[in-house]
Amino acid sequence: MNLHRLLASRAEAGKPVRVGVIGAGKFGAMFLSQALRTPGLHLVGVADLAPERARAALRRVGWPEERISAPSWRAALDTGTTHIGEDAAALIATPGLEVVVEATGVPAAGIRHALAAIREGRHIVMVNVEADVLAGPLLAEKAAAAGIVYSMAYGDQPALIAELVDWARASGFDVVAAGKGTKYLPAFHASTPDTVWGHYGLTAEEARRGGMNPQMFNSFLDGTKSAIEMAAVANGTGLLPSAKGVGFPPCGVDDLPRLLKPRSEGGLLDHKGQVEVVSSLERDGRPVFRDLRWGVYVVFEAPSDYVRRCFAEYGMVTDPSGRYAALYRPYHLIGLELGISVASAALRGEATGAPTGFRGDVVATAKRDLAAGEMLDGEGGYTVWGKLMPAALSLERGALPIGLAHRVKLRRAIAAGETLCWSDVAIDETAEAVGIRREMERRFVGRNAPAEAAQ
């Protein structure tokens, strides 16, 4: 509750928090719009493989031309302006830089940039949830050993869910379930970039004019992004996925405490302490009443009859027993809120959520029958979608992470709905991202078993 005051103090002292952003897509651009208006922050640079696109993004969100004209990262540091370039490694290595925001969305790039930031002693705000789920538990350990912060991105749903979980636990409640809402129907798992816009009520031309990437938007639709975000929440909170993955039960905000409790008590959960995503659509396509499509939630339990009476006295919506209640946030503002993570890392030395173990994984699952020799096209594409799985089960099966299911060739035919394994693809074991993932699997095998899940 004092980040604004701390930022103001840095501004008054002439020592603003120095930030570098890698990736000027939608999330990055949203942060840039607010960084301009936040005293105590200095955007040293933006690294993007398309510098003119990054420059256009800065102009579009209101940056004056004179603020983005620095000829180098060092010049930007000295003059309080911003440099735009392609070389992310050079930006990370700029002396005096404090925080790196990784917003590329590419798992291999995210791992590479995180490792560079750790070597240079820069705090990392990992917007790149794909990289975080692929190797975040190991990256967080390496960052901690180097004395820097590795953080989830506030404004994105995993960090906001982690905040709600932390609130509940710090208030003395046991967490029964936590997660988010989304638009879901079972048929969406088969969606491809060719079919995605119809599910959003858009034509391909309308999407093109809006600059929308069909593969990225398809990842949100086909269940992959939800799985990735729930794995990140599991890894950051100690909650666990169901062995069946994400269930996507239709559920409005008033039904959260009634439905998201253990099956043994009349709910839908396999166990207490579970991550779950609720759908804003009934299975027949009708809208759910008071849905949570854009929001996040936590369900918690009254530890005593006294607290159960307090729930009733203060108007909490509960399940029929009065024991289970929920708190939710109906919206998230994505990159517009990212400054919270930047300020928290630099000024408090605290992450807004971070992996504490390897509990959830997201594995490549065939969208259709795939032939030997086919090339996988990764998250949101035509060949595979990402299914949430307990990490212990993923390791036992040798399942292929969705973050490595891109531009790799199949060794054998795979049936629709089948989980792919490492042995099913011709993978480059010398690739940095593959090596880091393999290291994480070796490091965490046998750890964070279900019995260790914190309630």
Concise overview:
About 35% of the residues lie in helices and about 15% in strands.
Summarize the structure in words.
Helices cover 36% and strands 17% of the residues. It has 3 domains: 3-155 and 335-348, NAD(P)-binding Rossmann-like Domain (Rossmann fold, 3-Layer(aba) Sandwich), CATH 3.40.50.720; 158-184 and 223-332, no CATH class; 360-448, Type Iii Antifreeze Protein Isoform Hplc 12. The strands form 4 sheets. The protein has a 6-stranded parallel beta sheet with strand order 3-2-1-4-5-6, sandwiched between helices. A 4-stranded mixed beta sheet has the order 8-7-9-10. The chain has a 3-stranded antiparallel beta sheet with strand order 12-14-15, with no helix packed on it. The chain is α/β, with parallel strands linked by helices and 455 residues long. The chain is globular and about 60 Å long. α6 links the parallel β4 and β5 (123-126). α6 (107-120) packs across α17 (432-444) and α8 packs parallel to α12. The chain is built from 17 helices and 15 strands.
Name the features.
3 domains, Rossmann fold, about 450 residues, about 15% strand, alpha/beta, Type Iii Antifreeze Protein Isoform Hplc 12, 4-stranded mixed β-sheet, 17 helices
- Shape label: globular
Mean pLDDT: 95
What is the number of helices? Answer: 17
User: Helix proportion of residues, in percent?
Assistant: 25-40%
The CATH architecture of the largest domain is 3-Layer(aba) Sandwich
* CATH topology category name of the largest domain: Rossmann fold
Tell me the count of domains: 3
Q: Over the alpha carbons, how many angstroms does the gyration radius reach? A: 22 Å
CATH superfamily of the largest domain: NAD(P)-binding Rossmann-like Domain
Unreliable stretches: 450-455
N- to C-terminal distance: 26 Å
Number of strands: 15
What structural class results from the helix and strand content?
Answer: alpha/beta
Quick one: CATH class of the largest domain? Answer: Alpha Beta
Instruction: Give the strand line-up of the largest sheet.
Output: 3-2-1-4-5-6
Beta content? 15-25%
The main pleated sheet reads as: 6 strands, parallel
